[in-house]
User: Which sequence fits this backbone?
């Protein structure tokens, strides 16, 4: 049972759009494990590798020539902040998987700088996940994962890998960077899946 | 990267405040009694949950300031904050709070790590780094440590008296302060002079407000430190 702190009143900004344990911010905080990698757009590449090792690569020019979507989504960071109504432009992840022959159920996102995060492949399909290259009408800054980041807003934001460089498709799930350090393999903010075992 | 053990379910635990200590005019340390505390590594944090009488609750993360198994948190009060003014001014000995943890297996230092250590702290970002300094001392480790701490003024510096005592008694620990109100922000020159040469491949830990961490981590990389050896913890604030 919760312990009540009589002198604590909080900020009374309970918001139906916020998952449990989250608070609203209008800033855009940063969560990363190390220094921010700086990848020039003209050197950026994105590679999808299947479980058999077959690889397909796209460049910045390829990416920005693909049909893009403008999306407005809420984002939820495991460090407790949520930001509502953020706007992004990106290409649906499905577009990169159309011609890929795979039986995989999971994917590992890889970043410049070595970061990784694992996701079920189903969570990357349809209108749920984007390879994003614009935020709030501008290029994505390096602190926020530019030039290109993954955007999977229905999961905690560490799943939306910054400095995205590839997806490796996997038959079995395997933990990424934060997941190895004890964070949840799936990370649904509405079920408050912050840590392993939640 | 080595795999760390996956902790069991992180349940909420009842913690009782056993002592409260002023560190600066705007920061306090809470000593907590946490039955069943499993112990922690230097650098890990806990999540604290406060619940108001009507059931409204709020959670924030706080680093462990103490060497395991003592549980101490140091909270810097942000004047317009929701949680830190309560923890930093209202809480008194005997009060209870809920916490869970320890959390985080990446921003940690173990006494068995052989590399020299560079700690770079902005403001209250010193808290998890102080846990490393205290853990090193408690373990009798001789790993050379250097701390560069940026604080607004000497009156804002956490743990200044303890650090002065520790550097006097311990040749393996160096501390350099940057008073940002008078000397300005941390510079590459300061990190170059008071850090370790990149050739020594030191383990670097950078912690503080997000903007500070971004700047300091970039400087370390520019000085030639491998990004893989620079671990960061961002406490918040606008980048
Ligand atoms: C892993 C981790 C460990 C942490 N360890 C500590 C710790 O040991 N000691 C400690 O005092 N805090 C620590 N923090 C920060 C802490 O979790 C809270 O963010 C902080 O106490 C502010 O909470 P609040 O509810 O008072 O303010 P809020 O109501 O959340 O915020 C008030 C305003 O302050 C801004 N703000 C939030 N954090 C900061 C900051 N650090 N600097 C400048 N502006 C900020 C917000 O953007 C907002 O505008 C840690 C954070 C993380 C993620």
Assistant:
């Amino acid at each position: 049972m919760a312990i009540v702190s009589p002198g604590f009143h909080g900020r009374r900004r309970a918001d139906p759009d916020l998952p449990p344990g989250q608070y609203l911010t209008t800033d855009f905080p940063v969560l990363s494990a190390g220094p921010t990698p700086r990848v020039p757009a003209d050197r950026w590449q994105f590679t999808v590798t299947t479980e058999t090792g077959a690889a397909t690569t796209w460049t910045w020019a390829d990416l920005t020539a693909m049909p893009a979507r403008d999306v407005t989504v809420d984002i939820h960071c495991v460090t407790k902040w949520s930001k509502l109504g953020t706007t992004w432009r990106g290409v649906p992840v499905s577009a990169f998987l159309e011609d890929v022959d795979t039986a995989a159920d999971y994917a590992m996102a890889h970043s410049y700088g070595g970061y990784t995060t694992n996701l079920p492949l189903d969570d990357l399909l349809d209108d749920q996940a984007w390879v994003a290259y614009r935020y709030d009408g501008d290029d994505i800054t390096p602190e926020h994962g530019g030039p290109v980041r993954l955007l999977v807003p229905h999961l905690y934001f560490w799943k939306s890998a910054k400095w995205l460089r590839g997806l490796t498709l996997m038959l079995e799930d395997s933990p990424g960077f934060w997941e190895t350090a004890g964070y949840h393999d799936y990370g649904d903010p509405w079920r408050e899946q912050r840590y392993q075992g939640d | 990267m080595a795999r760390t053990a996956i902790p069991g379910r992180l349940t909420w635990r009842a913690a009782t405040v056993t002592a409260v200590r002023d560190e600066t005019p705007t920061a306090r340390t809470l000593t907590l009694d946490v039955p069943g505390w499993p112990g922690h590594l230097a650098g890990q944090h806990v999540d604290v949950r406060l619940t108001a009488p009507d059931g409204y609750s709020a959670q924030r993360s706080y680093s462990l300031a103490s060497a395991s198994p003592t549980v101490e948190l140091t909270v810097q009060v942000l004047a317009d904050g929701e949680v830190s003014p309560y923890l930093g001014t209202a809480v008194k000995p005997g009060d209870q709070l809920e916490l869970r943890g320890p959390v985080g297996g990446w921003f940690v230092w173990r006494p068995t790590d052989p590399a020299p250590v560079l700690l770079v702290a902005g403001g209250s970002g010193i808290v998890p780094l102080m846990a490393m300094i205290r853990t090193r001392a408690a373990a009798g480790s001789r790993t050379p440590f250097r701390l560069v701490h940026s604080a607004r003024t000497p009156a804002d510096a956490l743990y200044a008296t303890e650090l002065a005592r520790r550097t006097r008694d311990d040749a393996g620990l160096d501390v350099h302060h940057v008073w940002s109100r008078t000397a300005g922000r941390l510079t590459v020159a300061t990190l170059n002079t008071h850090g370790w040469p990149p050739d020594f491949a030191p383990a670097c830990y950078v912690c503080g407000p997000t903007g500070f961490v971004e700047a300091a981590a970039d400087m370390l990389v520019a000085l030639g430190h491998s990004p893989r050896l620079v671990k960061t913890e961002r406490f918040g604030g606008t980048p």
User: Anything to note?
Assistant: Residues 1-9 of chain B have pLDDT under 50 and may be disordered. Chain B is about 25% helix and 35% strand.
